[in-house]
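Recap from last week: sequence in, structure out.
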Amino acid sequence: MDFLNGLAACPTHDAAFDSFLFGVNSELKIVLSPALQRAVEFDPVIARNFGVVGMSATLILPLHASAPGPTYLGWHADEAAARE
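Predicted structure tokens:
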């Protein structure tokens, strides 16, 4: 188990991350998949959970926390791109 291979999230956002609906880039910015971005634009319920009200634009790290490892973030981004 590598502690750099993980994110703490509520169940909704954890499932969305695991389903490649959003990711985190190397600058720790949240990146929505094209499908989720479209859904945010047209569905107020999805916008409430994944739009500017429901999600931060960047990953929030507690003081002294380590960011996810770049290898893991890169793998997640590559997998998301392959599924589009």
